[in-house]
Specification:
Two copies of one chain form a homodimer. The first copy, chain A, is built from nine helices and four strands, in the order E-E-H-H-H-H-H-H-H-E-E-H-H. In chain A, strands 1-2 form a two-stranded antiparallel sheet. Helices cover 38% and strands 6% of the residues of chain A. Chain A has two domains: 48 residues, no CATH class; 116 residues, no CATH class. With 226 residues, chain A is mainly α.
């Protein structure tokens, strides 16, 4: 695998004491360090796609509002690895949240490196969607160094296995996400376990692993006489 | 079918001008008229179940909050049969709602008689759930007059066809509805088309008809190699 720079990057996040952000440019690169160099192309041509990859990789899902017991807004996944005691130092009192919310937040916890790997994997998959833009050569080779050769148009929904078009991202900008990041096992956030799914497929899968989901719908078809 | 009283019942709802509520006791009954006599037993022993049947039969789904463009709270389904002009007289300005909300509200429209039939059907089904209480004889015979003989323990989820236990209603009281009213065709609210489903089954079905849902998951299993 490609050797990376991995120098720490200073930021002003209050969570910097937990994990130092790092540079993921190739080792010995020229110019400034960059945490997400593989997203540069999308940041230039379609910022919402880059934002989505970064957000889904590094942040928990969260309520769109803020209230004492609904839980915090999206929060960095690695922050959720801290103990209840440590979280209090960041102004987050887990004991005030409902058990269901706590479980959901803790389930989304993941370490920094896993989150970066997820971002890499999702970017690699987006470029292989139907109607996706061609990656610049440097980014293509960089991503292929992690996950193998790209096969353009080959990205399918992890659930229903139908191709996913890059154009569906545009619908999201009009309010409704049609492509969602999907976890084959909803309780594991790492490169191997993530992919994209249609919104309706992701909703149907729910909290089940993909294997359990397929088994479940097999049973449904059997019992309903199909 | 049983001949009903059908005398109008006075109430103080602002919507009384649209539809007059009617008595559904048998024709020539003694005592006071009653719109939902078949729910009396549940109103005595488990009010939340009676409330749910009445609510799901007669009201649209609705936001739990009230804001200008999120749409109104639950509203009587037959009110949604009125024109935009008529609705203004009831303080509801449809032109202020988002197109998606309008479509959803209009889709839930149903006339008064269909709603009563749905309530009858759901009550008949609840008594046939596993672990359900025995209906008083008068209510049993009344409901059987509409939908045929009861077969106790025979009510299954409309989607997955597994039995549904009456005990799941209790979970709803602790915040999470585990049994939902389900429509084989989500755009038809009548006795033939309704039943109960597990929450996760209802969510998986989404806006699809049951036939389309089964076809969809057949395709998923095929493409995923199951």
């Amino acid at each position: 695998m490609l050797k990376l720079c991995l120098k720490t990057i200073n930021s002003r996040s209050k969570y910097d004491g937990i994990v130092q952000k790092r540079c993921h440019l190739p080792h010995g690169h020229k110019g400034r360090c960059d945490e997400f160099p593989f997203l540069r192309h999308f940041y230039e041509m379609d910022k919402s796609v880059a934002d989505k990859i970064k957000r889904d990789s590094t942040m928990t899902t969260g309520a769109a509002w803020k209230s004492e017991d609904a839980g915090p807004n999206r929060i960095l996944r690695w922050v959720m690895l801290l103990s209840d005691e440590e979280l209090k130092n960041f102004g987050l009192d887990m004991s005030k949240l409902k058990p269901g919310i706590i479980a959901k937040l803790r389930e989304k916890a993941a370490d920094y490196d896993s989150c970066i790997e997820v971002a890499l994997k999702l970017t690699w998959l987006v470029y292989q969607m139907e109607d996706a833009p061609q990656p610049p050569r440097a980014i293509r080779e960089y991503l292929e160094g992690f996950f193998g050769q790209m096969d353009f148009g080959s990205t399918v929904c992890e659930v229903c296995k139908l191709p996913i078009s890059f154009k569906l991202f545009e619908l999201a900008q009009r309010g409704k996400a049609e492509i969602e990041t999907c976890h084959k096992n909803p309780r594991l956030h790492n490169a191997e376990n993530v992919g994209f799914a249609h919104r309706e497929c992701n909703i149907a899968q729910g909290a089940k692993t993909l294997d359990d989901f397929y088994e479940w719908i097999e049973g449904i078809l059997e019992r309903s006489g199909h």
